[in-house]
Amino acid sequence: MKIIFMGTPAFAVPCLNAIAKRHEVVGVCTQPDRPSGRGHKLQASPVKEAALAHGFPVFQPETLRLSDDNAKETRAQLEALGADIFVVAAYGLLLPKGVLAMPAHGCINVHASLLPKYRGASPIHSAILNGDPETGITIMQMDTGLDTGDIILQKSLPIPPTETITELHDKMTELGAEALLEALAQIENGTAIRTPQDNALATHSPLIKKSDGEINFADTTEKILNQIRALNPWPGCFTTYDGDVLKIWKAEPFCEAETPSKDGVKGQCPLQGRGDGVPTNLIFKTSDGAIKAIEVQAAGKKRMSAEEFLRGRKR
After folding, report:
1. Contact (CB, 8 A) for 56 and 81
2. Residue 154: Cβ within 10 Å count
3. Which CATH superfamily hosts domain 2-205?
4. Which of 3, 109, 176, 311 is 20 to 30 A distant from 260 in Cα terms?
5. pLDDT tens by residue, 213-271
């Protein structure tokens, strides 16, 4: 089939690479280059870089709504390509009704959850934050709603209890490419079955904000550990230690939580030390126990083990 691909982040790249091997990609839409890094230099999206490597035509509209003159031109260019179907994977822009109706087979979306659960921007994060034992990929027929279209195909994936967002994301990208190829084959040979979603079961996955990384030690141990693994590397989870911001990159449950909290340090237990007086464990009380920090990062410092961090503060 002739395909126009629409995507932006790294999650979408395996999908583009997969369809490039079996179908004719006639164009790629991705979001405009954005300032990045300390120098604020314009940075191409991962999908744009992959598309250029393949030699595909690239389109980068700010919007596809007809109220924008540039969008009118882009829409005319896309329609002229005569694609059979549009494939969307984490594009970041809603497609207007006129764009959805352009290709003969409409537009399909690769969504990183088992819809109708976790419609929205951050489904992989939400699955870990909520401690779900599994997640998966949904290939759906797009409509004008936000992830509300009919389900064509779903593939599930277990989530180990210690898996981080980075580890799960990488598995999901490969599963997404696999599911996409299977769904495209069904659409091409006319065997695809489209099942409406049960809106009564729908939940929403909001965009992750930097403030979501702040740890509230009034939460349970499980919730805090899920938060740490869901928000690593961005935005990272943080708290205060002796008045300074401290990021906690990795932690585990701590079973010896009967000790009272240390005066002046929110949520923190007395530190367990060795005979030389140097503490070896960095423990934080929770509502139902405690966590032990394994890897941390002080402001302006590199990541390090909690023991290394504590030794440095004793100098």
Report:
1. no
2. 17
3. Formyl transferase, N-terminal domain (3.40.50.170)
4. 311
5. 999 999 999 999 999 999 999 999 999 988 899 999 999 998 764 444 443 344 555 45
